[in-house]
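Hello Y.,

Per our agreement to keep a running log of every chain we model this quarter, I'm adding this entry. I've kept the format consistent with earlier entries: sequence first, then predicted structure.
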Amino acid sequence: MKSKRLLFWLLAAAGILSLLRSGADEPDPSQLQISVGRLLEQAHYSRRKLDDNVSRQLLTNYLEALDYNHLFFTQQDVDGFKKKYETTLDDDILLGAPEPAVRMFEVYKKRVEERVATAKELLKQKYEFTSDRTVQINRQKAAWPKDDAEADQIWRDRVENELLQEALAKTSTKDPVEKLTKRYDQLQRTIRGQTKEDINNTFLSVLSQTYDPHSEYLSRSELENFGINMRLSLVGIGAVLHSEEGYAKIMELVPGGPASKDNRLKVGDRVSGVAQGDKDFVDTVDMKLDKVVEMIRGKKDTVVRLQVIPVNATDPTIKKVIEIKREEIQLKEQFAKGEIIERALPDGGTQRLGWITLPSFYADMDKSGASGARSTTKDVLALLNRLKQEGITGLVMDLRRDGGGSLEEAVNLTGLFIKRGPVVQAKDSNGTIHVSRDRDSTIAYDGPMVVLTNRLSASASEIFAAALQDYGRAVIAGDSSTFGKGTVQTMLEIGRIMPFLGGGTDAGALKLTIQKFYRIAGGSTQLKGVVPDLKIPSPTDHPEIGEGAMKGPLPYDTVDAAPFDKWDRPLFKDELARRSATRISSEPEFRYITEDSELVNKRLAENKLTLNLEKRKAELAEDKAKKARRKEARAQQKPADEKRFTVTLDNVSKPELEPYAEKKKEPEPKTSELKTDDDDGDDDADDESGGKTPIVDAIRGEAVQILGDLVALSRGPKTAQATPAK
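Predicted structure for the entry above:
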C-alpha cells in the first residue's frame, strides 16, 4: 500500500489529477497513456526518463511489433514515420495523444490489404517450381523492402513458397489455392477487427517493453489471463476455441468441465452468438476471438447461452441454443505431478527414485493464506510425502520449460529442502538490498537430489535452482544455462492506483520491473542464468532462446553475498561429470540431438529455402530416411529395466500405485477457453517432435542415471520424515 500511495502522489505532483473524469465505464485512452508513461518514468527499476532516446527505440519496436517479419511496410514508410515521430512520441505520450499509434496502424492496415490483394492474384498464377531461386525464411533481421517493387518480389517468392509447401504436404486434402486464400482472408479479418482500444493496448505494451522485455501493459482480459496462469483455474464452460472463417469454433471440450458434462456442445460446432442469462444474443461472427472468450467466461454459477451452428449441419442457417452454467475449471495438466521409478540394480536388488515435474510456480493470490488455497509448495509437499512413503532414495526436480511464477512460492519451495536461511536477494532502484529467507528449520526431504533445467527454465525456476546450487544441496543438470530472467515484476492495477481513470480493472494493469534478483552467493541470474554442474545435450540449448535473445534486457551485475551455511554433505560433482560424459558419448540419442542441433544452426545461418520442387523433395526424402534409420535403431534398443508409477494430486492418497502409461499429448487450454493459433491440422503428424513415433527422452534417462550415481556415491542416506506444509 505504501508504494501505491507514493506512486499516486508522484503522479498528482506531475499534474495528472487535472484529467479527472467521473462516471465513465471505460478508461480514456489519453489518460491511460499518460498514466502508463508516468508510471514507467517514476517506478521502473531503471528510473529512465521518457525522452527522445526512448521515443526512437519505441518507434522501432512498435513498427516491428506490427510488421515483425518486414513484409508489409517499405523503407519509404519507415522513413516517413521516423520523420514525423522519431523524437515526438515521448511528448505525445505525456500529453495524452494516442493518434500517432493509430495513424501508423492505419498505414499498416492499408499495406496488409494491398499485400493480401496482391497475394490472391499471385495465387491464380501457374508455378512450375523448377527455378533455382530461394526464399528467405526469417526476415526479422532483414532490411525493410526499399520500395514497392522490391516488396512485390518478396511476396512473389513468399506465395510461391507457400504453394510449394502445400504441394509437398502429405496429409492435406484441401485445394492449396482455396486453403491459402482462406488464410489470407483470416489475416484480413484479424486486422480489420482491431479497435482503437486494441491499437492503444498494443502501443502501451510495446512502450512498456521498451524499458525492458518483462514490463508489459495488460488489458482487462489479459490481466484475467495472467490470474488464470497463476491460480491454474478459470470460471467458464470448459471449451477450447479457435478462430476459423469468422467463427469461434469448438476445438476441444475440457474433460469434467460444464460443457463436457452437458454433452450438447460438440467439437466442430461454430459459435455465432453469445447471451448472458436471459439477455439478448450478441452476434459474434467476425468478432475477435478474445472478445468471444471474454463473453463466454463469467462468474461461477451464472448462465451463458450459446447460439451455435452444429458441426453436422447441412444448412448453416439452422442454429441451436445451448444453455450452460459456468463452473470453476482446474487446469490440472499444469499442476505439479510425480513419478516413482523402480530400477533394477546390478546386485539383483531394486531401487526406487522419485521424480517431480513442475510446469510453473503457481499460487492462488486471491486466496493466499486460506486453508483451501492451491500453491506449488503445498502440492509438492503432498507428492513428496507419498514418494517418501514409497521408499525413494533420491529425487529429481524437473524444471524444464518451467517459466516461473510466484516469487513467494520459489522461496517456500526452496525451504522444503534446506534447514533455514536466505534464498534470494533483490535490489531496488535505490540500491537497497532485500533478502527473502526460509525461516522454518524443518526439512521435507534431505536425500540425494538432482534439479533438471533447460533454457526455458526461467525466473522462479532460476531462483530455486540457484539457491540449491549455492547451498550445495543439489546437483544441477541440463542445458548450458537457464533462461536468464533475473528481474522482479509487480502488478499495478491502473484503475486502482489512478482512481480518476474510473472503471477499476477496466483500465488494465502495468506489469512493471521494480527489482533485480541476485543469488545468495552474490551473482545475478539476469542474462547469465544458472550454469549447471553437469551439462546434458539438449534441443533447447540454443542462444536464440533466453534473455540474451530479447530486446533491451537489463545488464548482469553482482552484489555482496548473503551469509549462509552450506549443506554439509558432498555432491561428488567431478565423479558424476565423468560418468555422465562417458554415457553421453555412447548414447545414440545424444548423437541425434547433436546432429539435429548442427543442422538447425546451419539452416538458421543460411536462412533460405529453395523454390525448386525436386530439390525440396530430395531434402524431405533425406529427412524421412534419417527418421526411418533412427526409428529402426530405436526398435533394436533394449528398453530400460525399470517400472514407472504415476503420482498425481488426484491419486496421491490412494493405497495402490498407478502404473505409468504413455498418453497422447492433448492440447492444454493454458490461460483460457481459447486457442488462437492458425493451425488447420494439416501438418505432418509423423515427425520426431511429437507425432506417431514416441520420442525417447534421453535427457530424462540421463538425469535418472545421474541421480542413481549420486545415491550410490552418497551410500543411500535415509529419507526424511514427512513434515507439514510451511
